[in-house]
From TrEMBL:
UniProt source species: Noviluteimonas gilva
Name assigned to this protein: Transglycosylase SLT domain-containing protein
GO cellular component: membrane
PROSITE patterns (UniProt xref): TRANSGLYCOSYLASE
Domain of life per record: Bacteria
The keyword Signal is annotated on this UniProt entry: yes
Record family assignment: Belongs to the transglycosylase Slt family.
Keyword Cell membrane assigned: no
GO function terms (MF aspect): peptidoglycan lytic transglycosylase activity
Residue ranges constituting the Transglycosylase SLT domain according to the UniProt record: 126-223
UniProt-listed GO biological process terms: peptidoglycan metabolic process
CDD domains with a match to the protein in the record: LT-like
Length: 256
């Protein structure tokens, strides 16, 4: 299981001295990776320079996404040090505040919650789009469930529309003239997801992140953007995907 820690949260604990870049340490011990604001005792650590003012920090864990969780602190050489690793004698501190997506981001939490799969809604449209694009029916349903809770008239605060919550620019790019028309919206979204799967070589974590926050954000961060909305969305879609795979009697696949 990978660490669940927001790099931006670690940086916000550092005293601000006017510089835009800081050094944090990527530390390895007992095959476990951690981040620290100083080299950890007994760990093999490498320094990493990161931008703390804009929080545009490259994801150290590749396609596993930004992670969050508890921090541990102590004083070393008169300075306060933070680490994501529980170290004997270090004090556990509260989880850092997560970063909200910027106003111009597509990222939104979605209207659906993890719950019982709904197989009776737009079944023909999902099946047709799946056959046309090769995108799994269960994945399309998971996205629709998370995005709109299957509400074809849904409109997000960011301007996303329809059952698949297509942004206007995306709808235009895929020739969707009326995103509130369920068949059009599902078809356009399926074609977009197919393109995302090709772009990210089938990595569904990155596909979900890009669907939520856009490809620019995923590429800029080198993984799942460290936005609270996107982190929650990716977890929600993954959980729903498992449930829809089970409901459709297909064993879930996992990317190694």
């Amino acid at each position: 299981m990978y660490l669940r820690f927001a790099i931006a949260g670690l940086l916000c604990l550092l005293p601000f001295a006017g510089a835009q870049a800081r050094t944090v340490y990527e530390c390895l011990k007992d095959d476990r990776l951690s981040l620290s604001t100083a080299p950890e005792p007994g760990s093999k650590c490498k320094p990493k320079r990161v931008n703390d003012r804009k929080a545009k920090v490259k994801n150290f864990w590749g396609d596993q996404g930004p992670v969050r969780g508890n921090l541990y602190t102590t004083r070393m050489n008169g300075k306060v040090v933070y680490s994501t690793r529980p170290i004997k004698g270090w004090k556990e501190v509260a989880e850092p505040v997560r970063v909200r997506a910027p106003r111009d981001s597509w990222a939104h939490e979605g209207y659906g919650e993890v719950g019982k799969p709904r197989l009776d809604v737009f079944a023909a449209q999902f099946l047709a789009a799946a056959k046309k694009t090769g995108v799994e029916d269960a994945w399309l349903r998971a996205i629709a469930h998370a995005e709109s809770d299957f509400n074809a008239r849904a409109l997000s605060p960011k301007g996303a529309r329809g059952v698949m919550q297509l942004m206007p620019a995306l709808a235009r790019a895929y020739g969707v003239s009326d995103p509130y028309q369920s068949a059009q919206c599902i078809d356009g979204a399926a074609r977009h997801i197919r393109d995302l799967m090709r772009r990210y070589k089938g990595d569904l974590v990155l596909v979900a992140a890009a669907y939520n926050a856009g490809t620019g954000a995923v590429d800029r961060y080198g993984g799942v953007p460290p936005y609270a909305e996107t982190e929650d969305y990716v977890e929600k879609v993954q959980a729903l995907y498992e449930r829809y795979r089970t409901a459709l009697k297909k064993p879930a696949t996992r990317k190694s």
